[in-house]
Amino acid sequence: MDLRDLFKSAENTEEFQAGATIFEEKSTGSVMYVVLDGEVEVRRGARVIEVIESGNIVGEMALIDPQFRSATAVAKSDCRLAIVDEKRFLFMVQQTPFFALHVMRILVNRLRRMTASQMD
Amino acid sequence: MDLRDLFKSAENTEEFQAGATIFEEKSTGSVMYVVLDGEVEVRRGARVIEVIESGNIVGEMALIDPQFRSATAVAKSDCRLAIVDEKRFLFMVQQTPFFALHVMRILVNRLRRMTASQMD
């Protein structure tokens, strides 16, 4: 199953042109995004740490645990994103356990990659 | 709310004496644990990377995304753990959105700490 299927009829979407900033490191923010079309680059400082392809999520950390954004997100190509606020997120977690598991897997994968990159 | 409340009447529990190994890095494993009493030390190689206090979870990565264990868990004190297998985990996620959110927050907190430790 693909998150695009869950969000394809989302009413709250936003389009970004290639190069546009979606959110900035150290800003406050309480929404996450599902990438419906295009690609998003996640940067920390000048370093690209991840490229998020369509069907995946970006910005979920500030939604799950409200704090400053830990990275900057920039549209790598023209892209269309579904905006998921806290209310929608809680509804999805409650109604769609698949969604909760998917988010958890993304977080675990990221932890595994960070752990691997810390290994000597 | 405390995970101990959710698991206090769990039937599937296990006790470990201080110093006993709960699981080992690079082993396979598909259960996670809720620490009901005592403390658990998480180690990677010789380094202690986290101390898990009662009310918290340990070993959730291998359950959410089945792969080898990324760390070793050792009882820091005598402790009692509730064992959560995949079936129970999926049931909890489905029935208790709070549980899913709690697990997500733990993962996000860990990501934030790892990110911070990578910063210069």
Taken from the alpha-carbon principal axes, the silhouette of chain A is globular
Tell how many strands the DSSP assignment of chain A holds: 8
Order of helices and strands of chain A: HEEEEEEHEEHH
- What's the rounded overall pLDDT mean of chain A? 89
Q: Which spans of chain A have pLDDT < 50 for at least 5 consecutive residues?
A: none
Helical/strand content category of chain A? alpha+beta
Note the main sheet of chain A.
Answer: 4 strands, antiparallel
Rg of chain A (CA only): 14 Å
Most extensive interface:
A-B, 25 and 25 residues
Structure commentary:
The structure is a homodimer of 120-residue chains. Helices cover 35% and strands 30% of the residues of chain A. Chain A is of the alpha+beta class. In chain A, helix 3 (86-95) packs across helix 4 (97-118). Chain A is globular and about 40 Å long. Chain A starts with a helix and ends with a helix. The relative contact order of chain A is 0.23. The mean pLDDT of chain A is 89. Chain A binds chain B through residues 44, 60-61, 64-65, 67, 70, 90, 93-94, 97, 100-101, 103-105, 107-112, 114-115, 118, and chain B through 44, 60-61, 64-65, 67, 70, 90, 93-94, 97, 100-101, 103-105, 107-112, 114-115, 118.
Q: What keyword list fits this structure?
A:
35% helix, homodimer, 120 residues, 30% strand, four-stranded antiparallel beta sheet, alpha+beta
